[in-house]
Amino acid sequence: MPFYRQHAAITILWTSLAIFSGLSSADNEECAITQLTGNYQLSNSGLNATANGTMVYVASAAGLSIIDMADATNPIFVSSIDTTWNANDIAIFENHAFLSVGLLGLDVINISDPVNPIFVTNIDTPGFSSGISISGPTAYLAGSSVFRIFDISDPSSPVIIGSYNTPGQANGIDTAGTTAYVADFSSLQIVDCTDPSSPQLLGSIPANGQQITFVKIDQNRAYIRSESASGISIYDISKPANPSLLGTFDPNASQSSSVDVRGNEMFVTTGNAFYITDISDPTSPKPLSMIESPLGQSYHRNYTYDAGKSIVLSTNRRFDVISFERIVCNADLTGDCLLNFFDVSLFLQLFSNNDPIADFTGDGEWNFFDVSAFLQNFSTGCP
Question: What is the rounded distance in angstroms from the CA atom of residue 142 to the CA atom of residue 133?
Fold first, then answer.
């Protein structure tokens, strides 16, 4: 392309930049659009949630609440039932909800008919029960300095078949097969429970003063949240005896409180926001989108219950339904999910070098029309 035409096109681009430089939010094919789709006011602050079909089950200080989420824009109350103590965590197995209930151990509730949940039994365990995880017909209940293993093949009559003492206070727990991963403040304990009567330590991840309180396991990776740190640490646990740090995600916001994972997307709550992050490369997690919590709320737990939908629990007796979808935005050349000066600067560099990326019209030439197409994308933002 003749120099004078290229120079004129670039001049137009810089002039237009002065007009559009105020734009600051966008997404590209590696980003996601998020929006608050719906919300529901609970009778008490939700502490954890899970789902079964279109029904969402929320554990709270008031017990168990069941909400119909068939229409995410209009959550509908179905029923509720008291638990023997504050319900801290919940897991579901064969139409039964298993809830960790603090000082009173484990509650089991039959949810075959969501409209009419029926209390089944309570197993009072010593200490304070905080987290629960289920793998097959086995439940793992964490609390105080121990986690207990239950045979729940008959959900109406759980039987304790083993236990394991942890160095610190067992708080969060997740499982994969017969391996339990326990966040006990002092470390993440990796325990083989193939023989539940004699669990064996496979390895551990030290907290290094950070107080590990939450863990999510997915595809040979452990996603760890620490009480005194603001980020999420991602570990390769394919070799349990030698876990290795892959990467970290620090939202540079208030303290991270929970994490959920679906495929290559990680969902993180902080006190004031909800983040969606691409973890296809776990060594370098990439923020896709963020939505701030509404005024007066503090987010503290999240659960992704459907493709493109998450429930985010807040401390003021409410949960929000946040929907998200990936989109394409050609103008985000830097791939940082923002449209700003840096995208324009990169376009100028690519345009000057006749790089195919800057050929926005796809005609094999670099001219005014490419600049115009880029500016149109830039000024429009993303869908």
Answer: 9
The span from the CA of 244 to the CA of 281, in Å, is 15
- With a cut of 80, say whether residue 8 has pLDDT above it: no
Q: What is the mean pLDDT of residues 281-306?
A: 83
Return the pLDDT at 5: 45
pLDDT digits (tens, 9 = 90+) for 258-267: 899 998 999 9
Buried b (16+ CB within 10 A) or exposed e, 89-120: bbbbbeebbbbbbbebbbbbbbbeebeebeeb
> 3-state class of 180 per DSSP?
strand
Confidence (pLDDT) at 368:
87
| CB atoms inside a 10 Å sphere around CB 283 | 11
Three-state DSSP class for residue 144: coil
User: Whats the size of the chain, residue-wise?
Assistant: 383
Task: Please state, as a whole number, how many other Cβ atoms lie within 10 Å of the Cβ of residue 285.
Answer: 23
Q: What is the mean pLDDT of the chain?
A: 86
> What domains are defined for the chain?
3-26+331-380 (no CATH), 39-322 (2.130.10.10)
Q: Please give the single-letter amino acid code of residue 185.
A: F
Give φ, ψ of 280 to 5 degrees.
-60, -30
Instruction: Please state, in angstroms and rounded to a whole number, the distance separating the CA atoms of residues 212 and 190.
Output: 13
* pTM, rounded to two decimals: 0.82
Q: Compute how many other C-beta atoms are within 10 angstroms of the C-beta atom of residue 222.
A: 25
Closest CA to 158 of 177, 129, 138, 175: 138
Q: pLDDT tens digits, residue range 325-334?
A: 777 778 888 7
Query: Which of 65, 145, 155, 67 has the alpha carbon at shortest distance from 106?
Result: 155
